[in-house]
Amino acid sequence: MILTVTPNPSLDRTYEVPSLDRGEVIRATGERMDPGGKGVNVSRAVTAAGRRTVAVLPLGGAPGSLVADLLHAQGIEVAPVPVAGPTRSNISLAEADGVLTKINAPGPELTSTEEELLLETVRAQSRDASWIACCGSLPRGLAPSWYAALVARAHAAGTRIALDTSGPALLAALRERPDVVKPNAEELAEAVGRPLATIGDAVKAAEDLREQGAGAVLASLGADGQLLVEASGVWFGSARVETVRSNVGAGDSSLAGFLIAGGSGPDALASAVAHGAAAVQLPGSVMPGPADLDPDAVTVTSAVPVDRVLTEPVS
Predict the structure, then answer these.
(1) Where is the Carbohydrate kinase PfkB domain positioned along the sequence (predicted)?
(2) Does the annotation mark 252 as catalytic?
């Protein structure tokens, strides 16, 4: 079982519009409503793979109830943490030419009592977990050190933990030695405080994070592929992608694929790459199932092309 923790989940509303004209009445041509948050997406991807998952998330108000109902409808077990403030509602405006405008609400401010209840719920639910995946930004009321406290508690209970966050929360958590961290290229550059121009730059940045405490670094490099840097070696993975339809949730799908395949080594990286490549070829935030994966399109090698210039260098 893979337990996911999403401290700041959302109810995501997407409206399809012909174009976005400020100050005008715009009539949507389509709409959908989804449960949102990086950890939520990991749970959705794990469920699509036919594996068991439990999603821990603070939920409040009518939007929180809708998030729980939508997850239950997808067959996902939910361990809700009741909070006084309403769960945030995010809005996406998708124009016909592919431009996406997102409006993300701040979400509720958690009290110290709610913070402790969230930690206790994770502890109680993690007894049967092979991995805990903690993902996304922290809501108001939780200090950047909150993820560090969660990693420490998970390790004290003997559970492996994967962390997908950024900024001060990521740096603070490194001192507790999370088993896996999963930054993208921008987050990796931010963490080490320098630009990334080549795949070799990304390898060096990942090694720096390991020196600061990360057990392994699974780094998403967008269209260039993914890196895995761990104690046993360094691997680079990529995949053929015919058509990119949406990259929403692709990184979350990759993390799910990595953990499903054991969470270490080149086989797990191959699974991560396959899941990420499948996700970008599906519409919206649809998570891939086994039928969507194309393992033959994936290449994983220890001969990392360190001199290759990134398609989108990070300055």
Answers:
(1) 16-285
(2) yes
Q: Check whether 285 has a pLDDT greater than 80.
A: no
> How do residues 122-143 score in pLDDT, each as one tens digit?
999 999 999 999 999 999 999 9
What CA–CA distances, in Å, run from 96 to 87, 93, 266, 278? 29, 10, 39, 23
Query: Which residue out of 252, 292, 294, 296 is catalytically annotated?
Result: 252
Question: What is the pLDDT confidence band of residue 198, given thresholds at 50, 70 and 90?
Answer: very high
Between β-strands 2-5 and 131-135, what pairing exists: parallel, antiparallel or unpaired?
Answer: parallel
| Portion of the chain with pLDDT greater than 70, in percent | 100
Can you list the domains of the chain with their CATH numbers? Answer: 1-178 (3.40.1190.20), 182-315 (3.40.1190.20)
